[in-house]
Write a structure and sequence with these properties.
Elements lengths: L13 E3 L2 E3 L4 E3 L21 H15 L3 E7 L6 H12 L6 E6 L4 E2 L2 E2 L1 H11 L8 H14 L2 E6 L4 H6 L5 E7 L12 E4 L5 H11 L7 H10 L4 H13 L5 H10 L6 E2 L3 E2 L2 H9 L3 H12 L4 E3 H7 L4 H10 L4 E2 L8 E3 L2 H11 L5 H22 L20 H10 L1 H13 L3 H10 L1 H7 L2 H17 L3 H17 L3 H12 L8 H17 L3 H14 L4 H17 L3 H18 L2 H17 L3 H17 L3 H17 L3 H15 L1
Parallel strand pairs: 4-9, 4-10, 5-8, 8-9
Antiparallel strand pairs: 1-2, 2-3, 6-7, 11-12, 13-15, 14-15
Length: 664
């Protein structure tokens, strides 16, 4: 929606931000798109890595001559891969007019597979482009956009060359970082480098960078470097403790590190065991700092926030976050989220898990984490308007959201946490928590088309609802899973889920739950070219929603579309008249926006083009006011067709121009 100019000549104008109001016209200007910069700033303590910086600079030169370039760094966790790229990105940002994009593939990985379409969904939004609902189309859209905008793309925690190839932009530089060797990328012209631990002189220079003059002998600095295995993440953590406690000598730190049982033994047969490094850091934390560190170790997901810490009982959460960031145990997450969130390096999370493993209240802490996500998901869900919900409202004591749009952005930013929390709760057999979480996540998965998470989470939700002995919830989970398959156009799997849900119908207490099955079945009938059958299904769905005004309106909306498809537009108009009256009486603004579009299609079928145009324009106007751009695009698409049929070139060009703006 950005990248175009609007020029108007009006009298009596008033400007309020992006809203221009005149005596006879109001124009909503599009928000200015900001160039994304998603990599966190580098630390000032960065040292050495001249050869790696030179390799990146050379790759940038190749990229500027045309086409993409790839550089891959592999190495141990905590060796400084992310810091290296952060340093390069800050120094060379001006060479990437499209911006700097970042994705931690670990947050998108499940059972060794990465949700690549989900990664691209985030990239496209950051670039100011609405991601296509069809996942396969996102790859082509990303290549198209990056052909015009040279970007730096940084992929962290890469495990396979195929992940890099799928996310390669058309121009610019892609930097991949991971623990596994990525030699297969050499076939794509990539430069693949092993990033080793800092050399003794470089690590000593890092230490000297934050030690005050005269503090610590050369031998002590060398011993400290050896104990930290040359890993920048460990050296920075220890260094922060030395800076914060001026009376603590380097020799005392070395003595504490040396006394730790096991020293730097092998962890997971892959990297140095940093327990001996991190134990002293942990022991010097304040009580609230330790409580937050325990949360990091217990929380199954990657992100923590002040709201989460407050909810689970960490006193002074903001101060605790500052404390853990100060000693490099946490980093601020740089992304498009609505809340400030923090993430620990995997090495730190492993140590935090070890510290929290024997806590007597570990299970209670995990239960509070699950309750937080279940409660706040419920708050976010309710912020997006009325719909059928089986669970009672929860989470009112938690922070709310100023709008449905903000709530949806928060759900999307926390998607990796939600999946991890659902899996952890199911493992603990907290089945009521699981299906309630799944029910509240419907607007996230349906609105953002996160199909991989949608299906995986709801497969768990179905089982939990069964274990909970709640037939209504079982049907709801099967139906939400069926809708995922329906939207992926796998009608066979969708029908299978409906059949499994139907087995529970004799036990269902809430008739509205039966209605959702009829609704999905009706959608399948329409998709299969059976509008007459769809009319019957939506009629049953509407009857099942008797007493629920919003449900009746929604099913009337569906029924009218089926009647039009079945060649019965007059009947559709009668149904729509009742739905509009009920929506107006109940102030159901979302449906008042949508209903005119269906009415326009009915008038078109009857040859009443002037009425069809008026209704389609009404829908477009309301949709624009509510920032429902997908619905506005549907209205203008219909208006173009109506303009061609009524020989109105001015209307056609006006709607085409708006469609171009929406596409931009």
């Amino acid at each position: 929606m950005d990248g175009y100019e609007v020029s108007n000549s009006v009298t009596g104008t008033t400007v309020h931000g992006s809203l221009v109001q005149g005596r006879n016209v109001t124009v909503q200007l599009p928000p200015k798109h900001r160039t994304p910069y998603q990599v966190r700033p580098p630390r000032e303590s960065f040292v050495n890595r001249e050869r790696e910086i030179a390799a990146l600079t050379a790759a940038l030169g190749r990229a500027e001559r045309g086409g993409p370039a790839i550089v891959a760094f592999t190495g141990l966790g905590g060796v400084g891969k992310t810091e290296l790229v952060a340093k390069f990105a800050r120094e060379q940002a001006e060479h990437f007019p499209g911006g700097v994009l970042y994705a931690d593939l670990k947050a998108y990985r499940h059972r060794s597979a990465v949700d690549l379409a989900g990664v691209l969904e985030g990239f496209l939004r950051a670039l100011g482009v609405r991601p296509p609902d069809v996942e396969a189309e996102r790859f082509g859209e990303f290549r198209t956009v990056t052909a015009e905008q040279r970007c730096l793309v940084f992929l962290d925690n890469v495990e396979h060359a195929a992940e890099v190839r799928a996310l390669l932009p058309s121009s610019g530089l892609l930097v991949a970082a991971g623990r596994r060797r990525l030699d297969a990328l050499r076939m794509d012209g990539a430069e693949v480098r092993q990033l080793d631990r800092l050399s003794a002189p470089a690590a000593a220079a890092l230490v000297r960078g934050w030690l005050s003059a005269g503090r610590g002998t050369d031998d002590e600095v060398a011993a400290l470097v050896e104990r930290c295995a040359g890993l920048p993440i460990a050296l920075n953590a220890v260094g922060s403790q030395l800076l914060r406690r001026g009376r603590l000598s380097v020799g005392q730190v070395i003595a504490e590190l040396s006394s730790r049982e096991g020293g730097l033994a092998v962890l997971d047969n892959e990297e140095g065991n940093l327990r001996g490094t991190y134990d002293p850091v942990y022991e010097r934390l304040s009580p609230q700092g330790r409580a937050l560190y325990h949360l990091v170790g217990v929380h199954p997901g990657p992100f923590v926030s002040a709201a989460l810490a407050d909810a689970v009982g960490v006193e002074g959460a903001e101060d605790a976050l500052d404390e853990l960031c100060a000693v490099h145990l946490l980093d601020v997450v740089v992304d498009q989220g609505t809340d400030e969130r923090f993430q620990a390096h995997e090495v730190v999370r492993t140590h935090a898990y070890a510290c929290a493993r024997e806590l007597p209240d570990r299970t209670d802490l995990l239960a509070r984490v699950v309750a937080y996500y279940r409660g706040r998901a419920s708050v976010a869900d309710r912020a997006m308007g009325p719909r059928l919900r089986l669970q009672d409202p929860t989470g009112d004591e938690l922070p709310g959201f100023p709008s449905g749009a903000v709530a949806l952005e928060w759900l999307h930013a926390e998607r990796a946490d939600f999946r991890a929390v659902v899996e952890a709760a199911a493992e603990r057999q907290w089945h009521d928590e699981v299906w309630r979480l799944c029910e509240s996540l419907w607007p996230l998965y349906h609105g953002r088309k996160l199909y991989e998470d949608w299906i995986a989470v709801h497969e768990i939700g179905v089982e939990s609802a069964r274990w909970a002995g709640n037939p209504d919830a079982v049907v709801r989970m099967h139906n939400q899973l069926a809708r995922a398959h329906y939207e992926r156009q796998d009608h066979r799997l969708a029908a299978e889920q409906l059949a499994l849900a139907a087995e529970q119908l004799p036990l269902v207490a809430d008739r509205r739950v039966v209605g959702v099955l009829y609704e999905t079945d009706g959608l399948l009938c329409l998709a299969d070219g059976r509008p007459g059958d769809a009319v019957g299904k939506f009629t049953l769905a509407r009857e099942a929603n008797a007493g629920d005004d919003h449900g009746v309106i929604v099913q009337s909306y569906n029924l009218a579309q089926a009647l039009i498809a079945d060649g019965r537009p007059d009947e559709a108009l009668t149904v729509l008249a009742g739905a509009v009256a009920l929506a107006a009486a109940t102030d159901d603004r979302d449906m008042l926006m949508k209903l005119p579009l269906v009415r326009a299609r009915a008038h078109r079928a009857l040859g009443r083009l002037d009425l069809a145009v008026a209704d389609a324009e009404d829908c477009a106007r309301q949709a624009k006011g509510r920032s429902q751009y997908a619905k506005e695009a549907q209205a203008h698409t219909l208006l173009v067709a109506l303009a061609e049929e009524s020989d109105d070139p001015e209307l056609a060009e006006r709607s085409r121009a708006r469609l171009r703006e929406l596409a931009g």
